[in-house]
Amino acid sequence: MIRIDPHIHSVYSGDARGTPREILRRASAVGLDAVAVADHNTMKGSIIALKESRGMGITVVPAMELSTSAGHIVALGIQEEISRGLTPVETLDEIHDQDGVAIIPHPFVRYRQGLFVNERNIRVDGIETLTPGTSWATRTGGPGSLQGKEAYQR
Ligand SMILES: [Zn+2]
Prior knowledge:
Structural class: alpha/beta
Number of helices: 5
Bound molecules: zinc ion
Strand content: 15-25%
Strand order of the largest sheet: 4-5-6-7-8
């Protein structure tokens, strides 16, 4: 089993204080095998984490959290930054064109722009399940569930 935290915000997100280096140190201290620094609308933190992870024995998955026109989508395993403000479907296409994986973070949390508040009929690769309201999706056999929760290091 691989232990990964797929949704960590760094200082480049504008809403967290951890630098990529601090996040990597913390992740390795708690025994994670991999992390994805998924900042709001930028890959900067992710790219720095990728560089700084060399020799640390921890895998960094390139990522970002996109603000689409209907809510947030986390893109994992992408190579290039994707623009904010596209529709969810356009955003999914961009992610899949880059062979990335699309995860819906905090799907039902309105104040954090949860995508499923506005849009239910959408094909995603996974959803976060340790956020409020998501037991519905796991019970009804929705998309692959990710036992993750957004992490903000402050
Ligand atoms: Zn979000």
